[in-house]
Amino acid sequence: MILLLLLALAVALVPLFGGNLRALSGLRFRAPWLLWASLGCLALLIALPGEQTWWRTALNIGTYPLALAFAWINRRVPGMWVIMAGATLNLAAILANGGVMPASLHALQVAGLPTTSGLYSNSAALADPRLLFLGDVLPIPSSWPFANVYSVGDVLIVLGAAFMIHRVCGSRLAGRPKPATS
Length: 182
Known about the structure:
By secondary structure, the protein is mainly α. The chain has helices at 2-13, 32-47, 54-73, 80-96, 105-111, 152-168; strands at 101-102, 123-124, 138-140, 148-150. The chain has one domain. The strands form two sheets. It has a two-stranded parallel ribbon. The chain has a two-stranded antiparallel sheet with strand order 3-4. Helix 5 links the parallel strand 1 and strand 2 (123-124).
C-alpha cells in the first residue's frame, strides 16, 4: 500500500516541478494485457488465501514472466529498465527460495507482521533463506500507517515508475524529454 502512496506522491509532485500531468494521457503501452494478466494472478492469490500448494507457488512465479515480458516490450518507455531491474531482483530471490520471497525475521517483527502462518504467503521468514539481501528486508515500522516489509526490487520498481511519470510529464525532477528531431 505504501508503494501506491509513493506513486501517488510522485504524481502529485509533477506540477510542482513544472510538469504537465496531461502528458500521461499520451503514454501508450504495447501489450498491456501482459501486465493486466500478471496483476490479475496476484489479485487471485490475495482473494483466495489458503495453504501452501504447488499451484499458488506456480501462479506467484508465473506473474513475473508476464510482467517482465510487458516491461521488455515497453523498454523504450523512460524508467522501464529500472522497473525491469527491480522485478528481476525480486524474481531471483523468489526462485532461489522455491517460490517464496524471503523475509527478514527482524523486518517482519519491526513491521508488526506475523512471523509464521499456516497460509500461503508470497513473502515469509524462511529457516535457511537464499539471497536474503534481495528479500523483504526493509520494514515500515508498525507504529506507522501501512506497516509492511519491502525489498530492494520493490524500491527500484517504485523509483522507475516515479521517474517514468516525471519524465513523460516533462518535470524538472527527471529532466525534460528532448524534443523530437526530424
